[in-house]
Amino acid sequence: MPSLSRLLMMVPLLFLSLPAARADAPETVTVILDWFLNADHAALLAADYSGAFRRHGLQVRLIAPSDPGSPARLVAAGQADLAVSYETQLGMLADQGIPLVRVGTLIDTPLDTLIAAPGLTSLKNLKGKTIGISMAGVDDAVLAAMLGSVGLSLSDVRQVNVNFQLEQALMSHSVDAVIGATRTYELIDLRQKGFDPVAFYPEEHGVPLNDELIFLAPRDHARDGKIVRFMQALEEGTNALLNHPDEIQAQAVHDHPELDTPLNRAAWTATLPRVCKQPALLDGRRYRTFMDFLRAQGVVHRTLDLSTYAMDPTDSTP
């Protein structure tokens, strides 16, 4: 989830239409982004610039939400075809019985990071310290697991909600550490500002590997033809991005000048290795493992079958 500083550095993208030049009428796919356009969405731009969406008969509309908590709800309400969301949120949605499923992955490594003030070089140093969070429940679960990996618990720290003002809280010394910031944005921004933070990565401290950004679709439409073609086009676009990163970035900066900053350029470079190369492919074992983790942490309260919350729409195997 982006911090407030991340939002202030980006011009709001209210609506972006990726046109398809095709003789017959293209089929429209509407995607609600997780937030404003940024480096995380590079593969979507590449699928447009490379002509992949056009070749698959699609016109893709990207819409930035006014509320980052709304994408999944909008898709569930039938107001869009796909939402860019988080695997952590997927667990909560499935637990609540909301009929959305994962149909693809945009970023297939964790990005969330626990960032501590200079000098706090071990998680054990956090005992008695104040930690800023933004998303109660999810942040609690990740923090509890990380602290548990060094024999601490949530009762050993003080948590305060900083309402996504993660960088500001840390740099003003209001907190000793924050959780929920990303290693490809806030961590870079802090370093560019001359702050010398210490980063702890959840997957190295008790939290299972998970996909940072995923696509959610209504369960009843997860295998619709246009969803299948969207994922196929995205895979082609991702390959174009990896083959021609400089050209794709140059076009993105030309079309969206707000991306032409040292921070956004550095974020683009840092994000490229984390773009999912086979977006539709589902690692069932990994998804089950992460769902088990969420249940163990009390975020999810019941056992869920994989098919109820995640699938590969391009896999026709019964």
TrEMBL record:
Q: Which GO terms describe its biological process?
A: thiamine biosynthetic process
The record places domain SsuA/THI5-like at 38-247
Q: What keywords is this UniProt entry annotated with? A: Signal
KW Signal (keyword) present = yes
Keyword field contains ATP-binding: no
Identify the stretch annotated as signal peptide in this record: 1-22
Query: Which InterPro entries does the entry mention?
Result: NMT1/THI5, SsuA/THI5
Q: Which domain of life is it from?
A: Bacteria
Listed name of the protein: ABC transporter substrate-binding protein
Q: Which organism is it from?
A: Gluconacetobacter tumulicola
Q: Source organism lineage?
A: Bacteria, Pseudomonadati, Pseudomonadota, Alphaproteobacteria, Acetobacterales
